[in-house]
Amino acid sequence: LSLNEAVRQILPVLGAVDLVIVSMKIHYLNQALIENALWTLVILGRPLGSFEGSPFPHRMSTSISHVSQFMSDPGVGVVAAVVDTIRNNTANPGVLAKAFWAIVNLSLLDCNKQTLVELQVIRLIVKSMV
Questions:
Q1: What is the pTM of this model?
Q2: So where does this one cross the membrane (predicted)?
Q3: For a Cys-Cys bond, which of 27, 67, 68, 70 suits 17, CB 3.0-4.6 Å?
């Protein structure tokens, strides 16, 4: 469902992002669930009208936007949840790959960049590679 751009705009409004974050917190030991939850955040975090991981508009689009404020709202806690997942899974390549991918899409939003720096996500990424 979340591959369709129109649906990706509706899912956060219906509370999908909140449900994903809550499920990650409750089931943090379930690696399969965490990987699928992160993949959902990767898809929902893709810019609308652009390429994956790119802040520049697609040639067929006049502008880009992200799904909504849900991907940057500290109250929802997407950035914090992804960073916490990295901290708790430093030895799990499947989880880390999806978490890092989610970080790429989250970092396309200027408002998330400072939060990522404050949470020392670069240090966590390097630490997980050692």
A1: 0.81
A2: none
A3: 70
